[in-house]
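Here is one such protein, fold included:

. . .
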Amino acid sequence: MPAPLHPDPQPPPGPPTLPWPHLPGATMTVTYTARVANARFGGFSQLLLLWRGSIYKLLWRELLCFLGFYMALSAAYRFVLKEGQKRYFEKLVIYCDQYASLIPVSFVLGFYVTLVVHRWWNQYLCMPLPDALMCVVAGTVHGRDERGRLYRRTLMRYAGLSAVLILRSVSTAVFKRFPTIDHVVEAGFMTREERKKFENLNSSYNKYWVPCVWFSNLAAQARREGRIRDNSALKLLLEELNVFRGKCGMLFHYDWISVPLVYTQVVTIALYSYFLACLIGRQFLDPAQGYKDHDLDLCVPIFTLLQFFFYAGWLKVAEQLINPFGEDDDDFETNFLIDRNFQVSMLAVDEMYDDLAVLEKDLYWDAAEARAPYTAATVFQLRQPSFQGSTFDITLAKEDMQFQRLDGLDGPVGEAPGDFLQRLLPAGAGMAGGGPLGRRLSFLLRKNSCVSEASTGASCSCAVVPEGAAPECSCRDPPLDPGLPEPEPPPPPPAGPEPLGLIPGPAEPFTTVTVPGPRGPAPPWLPSPIGEEEENLA
C-alpha cells in the first residue's frame, strides 16, 4: 500500500511579510551591466564614483593607517632625531629602498587572485537551480487529481529543502534566516513528520542529502502507481535529481576545502612586508645631503600611496571573493535565490501543469520567409548584409580560377613517379632489397617505364598520334648473338586421338587443377611483356 502523502505545510498565521527583494538592505550583488552596455568616451568613469561595493569602501581604513604611519616616521625624522641619528636613519632608508624590490609582490598576487576568481565563479555555477528538474517533474509525473498534484509539489519541495539545508550550512545570510530546523519547518520546507524522520536518522555527518533520498523513494512510488508511465521517464527524472544533488555536494566541498592556508599566508606576508619596507624606504631625505634620487622633498609620497592602493586593493579583491557566501556587497544573494527557486518550482509543477493555450496558426503561417519586425531604433540592422563567412570577401584573379589538367601527375609537381615511391620507403630500405615490398615497388617502377627488366635489350618505337588518342607502340626482340646457335623450334605434339577426360579413382579423392595454356601475343598498348615475377606479384 503506498505511503500517504501529507499536504504542503502551512506557514504559521501572522502579519504578512514582504518578499525578500523588498526588505531593506536585502540586495547584495552590485550590478552595473546596464551602465556599460555601450562603449563610449569615459564609459567606466561613472563607475568610479560608486561607493557601495567599491574599492574605496574596502580599503579606506588600511590606506589611512599606512599614510598615518608614514607621516609619523617622516615627522620623527625631521623634528625628533638628532643629526647623528638622522644619518643612521638615512642609511636605513636607502637600504630598505634598495632591497624592497626583491619581494615578488606582483607575482604571488597575480597567481593568488587568478585562483580565487576562478574558484569564485565555479561556486556560482554550483548553485542548485531547480529549473531543469521542475520541467522534468511537470512532464513525467502525471495526474490532474489531488494526489497527482501532491506528488509533484512534494517532489519539488524535497528539492528545495535539500538546497536550503546545504545553503544554511555554507552561507551566513541563510543561517541567520534559518538558524534551526524549527525555522525550516515553520517556513514550510519540511513537515513535522518529516522532521522526526530527519532527526531520528542516526548520522553525525551533514544530512543535506536526505531530502534527495526521499525524492527518489517518492518517484519510485509514483512509478509503481502509474503516475510515471515508463522506466525511461523515471530514469530521466532521477538523472536530473542527481545533477541537482551533485551541485549541492559541490557547494559543501567548496566550503570544506579552502584555498591552501600556506598560499594565503605567503601572499599576505609578502604584501605586508613589502609595504613595511616601503614605510621606511620611501621616506623623503634631506636634499642637502646629496643622496641619489633624493633631490626633491614632497613630504607626501603620492606614487607610494597609489602603489599601496593598487596592491592592497588587489588583495582585498581576493579577500572578498574567497568566500562569496557571506554578507559583503558582492556576495551571492542566497536568500533571494531560495525564494525565487521555491516560487517558480511550485508554479511550474502545479498551476502550470497541463495548462496549455489553444493551438492556432502563428503569424507567419503562410509566409515563405518568416521575419520578425524591427522597431525604428533597430531598423538600421536590417540594412546590413548577413554574415556568410570570412572567405566570402576574398577575390581571385580570372586566370587563377581556371581549372588545370591533372593528366600524368602521379605525385607532386616536378617530381618523377619513382621519386615519390622512393620516399615511401623507410630509411635504409632500397628497392634492391629482397623483401616483398622492394620487389613490389620495383615492379611498379618497371611497369611505368617503356622497357621492362625482362626485355632490356628490346627496341620499341611509338608512332606519333593526335592528342587524346591511345599511343601505338611496337617492340621487337634484339638480334641474337651471331656466335650462338639459333634455338631449334619445339617439336610439334604427336598426332593421335584426343586424351580422355579425367576419371576419378575408386579409392582416394583428388583435386582438379586447371593448367593455363600458352600466353597469347601482348596487346599493342602494352609497353613490354610482363615477366614471371611481375605476374606473380600482380
